[in-house]
Automatic annotation (TrEMBL):
The keyword Ligase does not apply. Part of the 30S ribosomal subunit. Contacts proteins S5 and S12. It comes from the Bacteria. This is Small ribosomal subunit protein uS8. Keywords: Ribonucleoprotein, Ribosomal protein, RNA-binding, rRNA-binding. One of the primary rRNA binding proteins, it binds directly to 16S rRNA central domain where it helps coordinate assembly of the platform of the 30S subunit.
Length: 140
């Protein structure tokens, strides 16, 4: 049983990025989809899609599981667009910030992804909306 699906999702992206994979598949969740949406909006990935594949541990072909497929992005000379992706708030230690404490990642070159009462949004949008929340990860 997986305890931290967000950490698993970020680790899969990090590992695939290190070996220049074209895409990576991860178990689907609404939080993972929201993080992928933000990564696409910020230009860190090409695209993402939700796919359904047959569930291998059953004989019934009707049973399917959802996966999120993230298409990674690289620069012209195989430069990585995602230099680092780091999980901040973990199940053992949750990290919450107020609107005045939302961090700037790499002096604004990166993005902090927050879970707020307005949804999962980037740090600069949370500052603009005047809301704080749980810091999920940093990407730069």
């Amino acid at each position: 049983m997986m305890m931290d699906t967000v950490a698993d999702f970020l680790s899969r992206i990090r590992n695939a990025n290190l070996v220049y994979k074209e895409y990576v598949d991860a178990p689907y969740s609404k939080v993972n989809e929201a993080i992928a949406r933000i990564l696409k909006e910020e230009g860190f990935i090409k695209d993402y899609e939700i796919i359904e594949v047959p569930f291998e541990r059953t004989k019934n072909p009707e049973n399917k599981k959802k996966l999120i497929r993230v298409h990674l992005k690289y620069g012209p000379n195989r430069e990585r667009v995602i230099n680092e992706i780091k999980r901040i708030s973990k199940p053992g230690r949750r990290v919450y910030v107020g609107v005045e404490d939302i961090p700037l990642v790499k002096a604004g070159l990166g993005v902090a992804i927050l879970s707020t009462n307005k949804g999962i949004i980037p740090g600069y949008k949370a500052r603009k909306l005047g809301v704080g929340g749980e810091v999920l990860c940093y990407v730069w």
